[in-house]
Design a protein that fits this description.
The complex is a heterodimer of chains A (442) and B (473). By secondary structure, chain A is of the alpha+beta class. Chain A contains 10 helices and 21 strands. In chain B, helix 1 packs parallel to helix 2 and helix 3 packs parallel to helix 5. Chain B is an alpha+beta fold and 473 residues long. Chain B has 2 domains: 221 residues, 2-Layer Sandwich (PmbA/TldD fold), CATH 3.30.2290.10; 237 residues, no CATH class. Classes of the chains: A alpha+beta (442), B alpha+beta (473).
Chain lengths: 442, 473
Amino acid sequence: MREIAEKIEKKFKNSGADDVIVTIGEEEKTQIKFSNNKVSATQTWQSMNVSLFAAIDKRLVLTSIHAFSQEIIDETIKKLLKFAKATEQNKEYSGIAKGPFKYQEREGTYDKAVAELAEKDVDLVEKGISTALSNGAKRTAGVLETTKSKVYLRTSNSVEAEEKGTKIHFSIRAFTDNEASGHYVATARMLKDCNIESAAARAAEIAKKARNPLPIKQGKYDVLFEPLPASNIIEQMGVAASAFNVESGLSCLAEKIGSKVASKEVTILDDATLPGGMGAASFDAEGVPTQTNTIIENGVLKTYLHNTSTAKRYNTVTTANAGIVSPEPFNIVLKKGSFIKEELFEQIKRGLWITNVWYTRFSNYDSGDFSTIPRDGIFLIENGKIKSPVKDIRVSENLLGMFRNVSAIGEDAERVMGWEVETPVFTPPIVVKDVNITKSAE
Amino acid sequence: MDLGLADFAVDYAIKLGASYADARMESTSNSGFLLRNGVPQISGFDRVTGLGLRVIVNNTLGFVSINQIEKEKVRTLVERGMKVTKNAARIKEEIKLSDEEVHEDKYEVKQKINLEDASPAEKLSVLLEIEKAVESSGIKVPGSYLSLSDFTTQKYFVNSYGAKIESKIPRTDYFFFLTVKENGKSGQRYWQYGAAGGFETILDKDFPGLMLNEVKTTAKMLKDGVKPPKGKIDLVVGPQVTGIMVHESAGHPHEADRIFGREAAQAGESYLTKDNLGSAIGNEIVNISDDPTIEGSFGYYLYDDEGVRARKKALIKNGISNELLHNRETAEALRVKSNGSARATSYDREAIVRMSNTFLEEGDHKEEELIEGVKKGVYMKNFTEWNIDDRRVNQKYVGSEAYIIENGKITAPAFMPTIEIKTHDLWRAVDAIADNTEHSAGTCGKAEPMQAIPVWFGGPSFRMRGIRLSEYP
């Protein structure tokens, strides 16, 4: 990998490019997909991708190479230069970080046991399904994914970085009938941290409780969100913190640095250094060593996430969140609170317990107006106790409004990644007061 | 592409004991441009080539892929595919595929202006012209995000029954996202345009004019928009709203793999079950179809990714659920033939049941007539936020450009009228359908790992009676 990257970078630099980043990613991924308690597909992917970024007189071009003969490399560089000349300058671009840098290996992000799991993954799936069934589920569906990856990055600014990682992700939805289901994920970098049986049992428990759901009236409810739905919402805040999104009208955090954007209970970090964090990484796309960034501290917005160019525009320094064009969070963390689970339930006199959501969509990113649909077990809570399962509701809210109403945070955080949670989130369950619940017209 | 290696992969899998094998070799070349607030951000081009192989061993299905197509790597791939599939067999679902006619064919979408002949400068200038039009409005547009991309996929499908299909489909895709400030409030509007064809599909559209209109309209809604009426009203929706309603509440629930629970974990299931196929969904004037063979459409193809010939499907006929979307696996489960709905977004994804171009069939009214027949109501021309639950029952659409209708006439802009409704209530409330079909382009998400696939969704304007709007918070 190193030789290929060096060859490309040198060749490029000699051709007149100002900045060059060569990123080589190697990945082996296996997915076992199951439905109706049986494996419905096994898929494996082996890929090697060389992505090439070049800035030529502020004209930014991205491409990739998939074969590595000298001829193909020369041809790609030639094409890229021609392509760049035909485009126009990005006057907002201010270059990439200058190295060399020293990197710290991120703790708990590579596990030989995951890398060498191979065909034993089927046993784990079997264990997950049987645990859910023995806990009362009638049928299950989900995936187990294992990933082993290596990335090597080299830039024309004396940066050279590499790291390897593993991931294991188990997602299970348990059904007790067509309208009653529970969903849980177990996601980790290390095999020992991926508690498949616990996830399967909890999905089944929720599904059992969710049978015979009833409609409720629309209106304001205090809501206890499990880590899975909380992550869907917290991720939106992390993404809104990207300076590029702020500039693009895609963020409700614009012009709010130093302002209160959440209740004092809320501290949100982007922590690429988190041991065992799903998004933990030692460097960003410019090769800058990552750090812990406090986005919101006790409810006050502290910073946006930056790369070198956005930082320049905001008269600050990079937060090591490159994306070349758009900074991105790595690993969003909601700081733990002090409530145990029963105490969180006790916070709710009359409200809801929401265990999953999907289809989060904004009508206005600038104001933060959005809605999301609770799915799987939803429960009416009275005086801290489950009264009955509920169906057919929607959370129709404002992102800032919701964060200002966060009133209690649990003490146990969980790692969440999923279909709609693309940036990993590490969060405890949370209680939000006065959540606006709507439903279909009768 | 060395097509012979796809043939080799299939033959080798059979030799190693597979009862069935198919291979898809694909090469997709693309280019893309992004203009943000008038500044070109980054552009790119790429060519991605790879081979996906599907095998059935011991009645179980496995899928493997690689992006380095060399004989030795293909050989290793086949061996690996056989091994992991055999290994999973003990807890695997038994897979049977429907018997289908074997086709050998080759087709290509014609381009008047070849995408590879249009220079990066020409492509970027499309966005720069649009930006100029937006700026000429004199309206405050603090956020303008414009992207243009094109991608051309060459594909070779081969299976162990002897099917061999070669195709080349170029597609173009324009997306905008605008933030407009007016009256101290912000409004946002986004939309996507997509087609199969060459660069002419971009040049033929007056995007600067369309965008200027979008900016002006968004500002007008902010400035003059009034609260929509409460209580029961009549609702007329324009083709963009028709399209999303059709796609979400009729298209997705007719995907047979949902009904069999195969996507239950994430994409979800359907209000249709094995027990209520053929049930009434809406008023008898409601006819909803899916047709991949529409020339120039974003969801165009003539053979699906299992080599089955594509055709138009009547999903809902006279208000009754009529036909599901099938691949060979779901078709066999219902003892019918596949209707050619298996699609994969790329060589490294399995082909699953997908929509192509889904739409409400036209009626014979003019749109004006629908409005004339409303005493108190709302005309929702297009929408912004929307969502639907995972059984495709409860859905929400928030109007973007919308108007109040009083005594058959449009009187004032309506500010974000919001409809939350159940699928059967929606399609039962339809009382008149217009003749002004328009299709919109979308990128539909489904499956794990996610497969975002090009589709059209559309139809004409139509009218619903007795609808209760939600309050926009």
